[in-house]
Automatic annotation (TrEMBL):
It comes from Phoxinus phoxinus. The keyword Lyase does not apply. InterPro entries: Ankyrin_rpt, Ankyrin_rpt-contain_sf. SMART domains: ANK (SM00248). GO terms for cellular component: BRCA1-A complex; BRCA1-BARD1 complex. GO terms for biological process: protein K6-linked ubiquitination. This is Uncharacterized protein.
Amino acid sequence: MYVEEPEEEPYDPLFLPLSKLDTKLRNRQFLRTMGEVLKLAWLTDKTPEDVESIHRKLMPSFACRCVENNDFLSLQEILKHMDVDAGNYDGYTAMHIACETGNIDMVIQLLSIGATCQLTTRFGYTPLHLAIKDKHFDLIKILMQHGARVTQNPVRIGMDLIKAVRAKDYRLMHAWFLAGTNMNQCDYNGQTALHAAVEKRNELMVSKLLQYGATPEIADIWGRTAADDARKNNLHDILVLFNLPI
């Protein structure tokens, strides 16, 4: 029985050459392949100005790929032709990728040549936020020493803290703490991570939050504090942690 084979999906010839830049390519082979991409026929009908513009837009993506490959040699060559803080189509810079992957040596190298650690992607991520999200503790400390600060929307931070509590993600909570985050930050209902920890009756998380500077007397939009919730539910052990009478 004859079975008709499915048609191949149409492709955009503008981006087809980039498929050759596989993550396994390293060093000189990476540079050779990139050179082939930048000289392919798809550029022959462009003006010199267009070619230069296309090259400029592609270079940040190549730089990010070098960081993913831990390829210092290729990155060094590419950075000769672009701003170290230039971002790709999503606003990710080489620094963003280095922080996301936890590559401390790459971050130190980028900082040494003037890369900033405060730029934001189109999704709202700074390099520090990516390091927090992936729990790279030593990297967080390095970024803080170079002036990085948590700059996300406060309500979004409050929501992320509460999400970490509900997931019992103690390492993520520690990462937020190392970044100097206000552990009393509220979500859109005025609730804090401590509210969520009391709700989940998670004594260990309550203890950690108190160590990180959280306070049980922050009221939500209904006027209830974490201490009120502990009293209402007769959570004696948590009240002891709050240094409140049982």
